[in-house]
Write a structure and sequence with these properties.
alpha/beta; Spore Coat Polysaccharide Biosynthesis Protein SpsA, Chain A; Serine Threonine Protein Phosphatase 5, Tetratricopeptide repeat; 2 domains; six-stranded mixed β-sheet; two-stranded parallel ribbon; about 45% helix
Length: about 280
């Protein structure tokens, strides 16, 4: 069972001073008996009466956590045995303004192949600006101070996905981050990943743009990039009229041949759809 494998990877950490909060988001099965088999008093099993989504589930765990540090793991992800030990060492050896430690990780694809995930820009000293551009932090790789949540707020439960990216942006306003260039997590590709839902992605990208529009609009290239991404997301769900409008905005912010080419393709697709409807 995926969930058991994930929980075992946490229980078997070389750093053992921890609690494990398993949040069951109203799944079809009751796993309470499964965790009794572990016979480990560090486990607490909490079950939502109704499905609330990943952001609410993580927030439930944060509220109930008794420690000063928070780490996250999904049921299809596995931690390296020394993950917490290495992260706690780096956290405790860092300046007080460091609130979050993360690492690179390996994604295990459905065909069994592996893909290493790490920040595209290795010079990640300007955390906040880079996070406004893209999310380079995998949630299961994170160890953070609980005070970060108290300062910047919890996961936004109104976002259908990308709620982790939104939180890292907010935390980066107040805290510095430390990056460990080691694979400390193995993330197994899942068909049920909410981030793979194209409609959710389009909605979340637009919500993040609206949240940080005052900052993003100060950089026309960055604003253009957001319009471009949201346009692509809407094109993916066949909302060609909106994607065309967004591509046009992207071009006005930062004129590029690539943007114009994308607009041209969007027009062609829109015309094709109209032809099929008329026929």
């Amino acid at each position: 069972m995926l969930l058991q494998r994930s929980v075992q990877s946490v229980l078997f950490q070389s750093y053992s001073n921890l609690e494990v909060l398993v949040i069951d988001d109203a799944s079809t099965l009751d796993y309470s008996d499964v965790f009794k088999e572990f016979e480990d008093t560090r486990i607490r099993y909490i079950r939502h009466k109704q499905n609330k989504g990943p952001a609410a589930s993580r927030n439930t765990g944060i509220r109930l956590a008794q420690g000063a540090y928070i780490a996250f793991n999904d049921d299809d992800d596995v931690w390296d045995r020394e993950k917490l030990e290495k992260q706690m060492h780096r956290m405790q050896a860092s300046e007080d303004n460091v609130g979050l430690v993360f690492s690179k990780y390996k994604k295990i694809l459905k065909d069994g192949s592996e893909k290493e995930i790490l920040p595209a820009n290795q010079d990640i000293s300007h955390w906040h600006r880079l996070l406004l551009e893209y999310c380079f932090i995998g949630t299961p790789t994170v160890l953070m101070k609980k005070e970060c949540i108290e300062k910047s707020g919890a996961f936004d439960e109104n976002l259908p996905c990308l709620e982790d990216w939104d939180l890292w942006i907010r935390v980066s306003k107040y805290y510095s981050f430390v990056y460990i260039p080691e694979n400390l997590v193995y993330a197994y590709e899942s068909i049920n990943n909410v981030n793979s839902n194209k409609a959710n992605n389009a909605l979340a990208l637009e919500a993040i743009l609206n949240k940080y529009i005052d900052e993003i609009s100060l950089d026309k290239k960055l604003l253009s990039l957001y319009y471009w991404r949201i346009g692509v997301a809407n094109q993916g769900i066949l909302n060609y009229k909106k994607s065309f409008s967004l591509f046009s905005k992207s071009a006005r912010c930062n004129f590029r041949f690539k943007t114009i080419y994308r607009i041209f393709l969007a027009i062609l697709k829109l015309c094709t759809i109209k032809r099929h409807v008329l026929n």
